[in-house]
Design goal:
The chain has about 375 residues and is mainly alpha-helical. The protein has helices at about 10-30, 40-65, 70-95, 105-115, 120, 125-140, 145-160, 170, 175-185, 185-190, 195-210, 225-245, 250-270, 275, 280-290, 295-305, 305-325, 325-350.
Length: about 375
């Protein structure tokens, strides 16, 4: 099947990546501002990013000869250079906007500027990706593809267990990286699934997802298991949406509508709160936007700078909050600022790399 016709072509996954980062932005904005309703989509969309990252790596490995040559250095640099640039922008923002001139005396902050740590750009996502890239390199350098996937899955699972004493963000979505490897490995079989099967599976996953959201209320349930399974269900819905979009707009939209109906009906019967009930509608909006050809230039733009957008968006929300008390104005300001600075970081970062391929470091 030609790449352009594939449900998982770069153009489709790049648009999706652009909408996923907007979902993360919306989640953080609703928590930082704060809004009355906070759709519980944050870590699940990060999980979808991990899925696309694992998928993209294996796809590139299969297509490119000598793909692993200088892999670690190139991938690590492509992750950390934008972090360092974003860190300096955050530093200037704290000086200029928040008038904080004492931060250079804070050892933790200075260390994070050098290392790309979490204080400057909330970049735990980057730290995990570096580990995942190392696991990928070691496994695929020395093992067959099938056993390499097993090895990476085991290594990531062990890392998630070790990190389970940290905040939930560290271990609640990481298993989606090996899930992306599995998606790439079985890509042809998955793309051959019939439209009616896609519909049936989509509705079934929506029902399971709606009921599973109740599990977060159970005190005995492990956040490690719950978070990653929640991400898996969201990732499956994302995959099914990509498959459904290829079958035609009408069938795709009907499938999404049915998913929302069954999800809402079950969530209402379970009497869960608006933060959970709004998850499927909000996710559907982003999936529809990602699949609209008419706005492809915009969704591609967000996809191309999704990594840089992720690094800087939290600080831009805080900056906008100091300027505007109105939620809508703050939202527009932080969104526009995040996009403009993300583009700038992306362009400046490319000065350090010979590779001219567009897209964030997680795209391949």
């Amino acid at each position: 099947m030609p790449e352009s016709e594939s449900a998982f072509s770069f153009k489709r996954t790049n648009r999706l990546r652009g909408m996923l980062i907007l979902g993360v932005f919306l989640f953080h904005f609703c928590n930082f501002f704060p809004a009355e309703v906070k759709p519980d989509i944050g870590h699940t969309f990060v999980g979808a990013f991990f899925l696309l990252s694992g998928f993209g790596l294996l796809e590139s490995f299969k297509r490119k000869e000598n793909y692993l040559d200088e892999f670690v250095g190139k991938k690590t640099a492509r992750l950390l250079v934008p972090v360092w640039i974003a860190g300096m922008i955050v530093l200037m923002a704290k000086w200029i906007v928040f008038d904080n001139h004492s931060i250079l005396g804070e050892h933790t902050y200075l260390f994070d500027i050098i290392s790309g740590g979490t204080t400057t750009t909330v970049s735990w996502f980057v730290v995990e990706l570096i580990f995942f890239y190392l696991f990928f390199y070691l496994a695929f350098k020395h093992l067959s593809v099938r056993w390499a996937i097993v090895a990476v899955s085991a290594a990531v699972a062990l890392l998630m267990i070790l990190l389970s004493q940290q905040e939930g963000m560290w271990y609640g979505s990481g298993m989606m990286f090996p899930a992306g490897l599995v998606l790439s490995y079985f890509r042809e079989k998955i793309e051959s699934v019939k439209p009616h099967t896609i519909l049936i599976v989509s509705v079934t996953i929506s029902l399971i997802f709606a009921y599973y959201m109740k599990m977060v209320r159970l005190p005995w349930y492990s956040g490690l298991i719950y978070g990653n399974l929640q991400c898996l269900l969201v990732s499956l819905l994302v995959i099914l949406s990509l498959l459904g979009r290829k079958t035609g707009v009408g069938k795709w939209l009907v499938s999404l509508l049915l998913c929302n109906i069954v999800y809402y009906a079950l969530e209402t019967s379970l009497q869960l709160g608006p933060n959970i009930i709004t998850v499927m509608p909000v996710m559907t909006i982003f999936l529809v936007l990602a699949g609209m050809d008419t706005i492809a230039p915009l969704t591609n733009l967000f996809g191309n700078v999704s990594y840089e957008f992720y690094l800087i968006h939290a600080m831009m929300i805080f900056v906008s909050m100091t300027w505007f008390s109105d939620m809508l104005l703050c939202f527009i300001s932080s969104l526009v600022l995040s996009l403009i600075i993300a583009i700038a970081i992306n362009r400046v970062s490319k000065i350090f790399f010979d590779n001219k391929k567009k897209g964030g470091p997680q795209s391949d």
